[in-house]
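Morning. Coffee machine broken again, so started the prediction first thing and wrote up yesterday's gels while waiting. Chain of 99 residues, entered below exactly as on the submission form.
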Amino acid sequence: MSSTSALRIDKLQTVGGSQVMTLGTGGSIAFDGNFNPSNFGIPFWDGSGNRPTSGLSIGSFGFNSKNIRFEVYVGIDSQTGDQLWAVFDGVKLEPEDLE
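Came back before lunch.
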């Protein structure tokens, strides 16, 4: 006997009841009202050898702080079984470079 479970939600609210976002059909997300998060924490790791190794879905991403680059998981190599990552290199800027 098999069974399946589903969690279907269409809105997220804060603990105080303020509307945060609406989840629409086809994966659309709309932020509601005046919701303005103060930050968005991006996962990070220190070097390619420290990337996450389990629980990844295609499109998972993070920042490689050792190599100063943004990395996106794109699946498994069918021949080697190794993880595949799209890598976007960057340049570390000093505060005076940002003016």
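Residues 14 and 38 are 14 Å apart (CA to CA). Going to sketch it on the whiteboard this afternoon.
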